[in-house]
Amino acid sequence: MGGHDAGTQHQFTGIAKYFNSYTITGRRNCVLATYASIAAIVLFFKLKPKKQKAVTAS
Amino acid sequence: MILSFFDQFMSPTWLGVPLIALALTLPWIMYPTPSSRWLNNRLLTLQGWFINRFTQQLLLPLNLPGHKWALIFTSLMIFLITLNLLGLLPYTFTPTTQLSLNMGLALPLWLATVIIGLRNQPTAALGHLLPEGTPTLLIPVLIIIETISLFIRPLALGVRLTANLTAGHLLIQLIATAVFVLLPLMPAVAILTATVLFLLTLLEVAVAMIQAYVFVLLLSLYLQENI
What we know:
Helix content of chain A: 40-55%
Number of helices of chain B: 7
Membrane topology (chain A): Single-pass membrane protein
Strand content of chain A: under 5%
Distance between the termini of chain B: 54 Å
GO cellular component, one term (chain A): mitochondrial membrane
Order of helices and strands of chain B: EEHHHHHHH
Number of strands of chain B: 2
Oligomer: heterodimer
Number of helices of chain A: 1
Strand content of chain B: under 5%
Order of helices and strands of chain A: H
Transmembrane segments (chain A): 26-45
Organism (chain A): Denticeps clupeoides
Structural class of chain B: mainly alpha
Pfam family, one (chain A): ATP_synth_reg
């Protein structure tokens, strides 16, 4: 099912060297990056200050 | 007192004393104690042969550090297969129909494999969450899916065993009731239903053995990934 290469034949350059889906470290970095992004989004919405509506004079 | 079809799954008590501990230790008395003789009697030889063969087959795909799990896997297999088969006797309580027991077996063992993987080879353990060769756009989606499937594993392990055994016992009781009710009314149909009941009981014997094996096999597979 799909070509199984050892991942060692790939010569990645740039960001693909660290984040790719072929080498085991590349896959690990992708996983960690995804978890970090999800944590960042959750933290962002938790720590966002709640806006209070200004009271208008009636 | 109105009996419902689910009374067979109630944890047994006698005069208020819970008997679940007795039900769980029953497999212990079913097996002969190993003796210190070189050549044992037929039963012991057969038991030893079965245990050795099973352990050998199960540990085949595991590397050397995984062989530490031989005792727990084999004893778990024998425990489950005995409980399942004993439960097929009429009016016998089957502890493996209780989700609490199956989750109590599945969750700690699964968690152990995950922790071993993260501790001994964290890169490989985390890298397994992304299948090799995934297209770039699909990477985050697949990581989320694989994480969900990782956490579903203990639930699936426990519920698979519970559901299979509960459904089987329930079916047997329902069809047996149908035979009993139909016998004075339509004897021919009752005999047909009795044949169905016989075939179902044979199926349940197979399911009892297969489900115990599948439980242990899946745990060994999860261990393979992580050890």
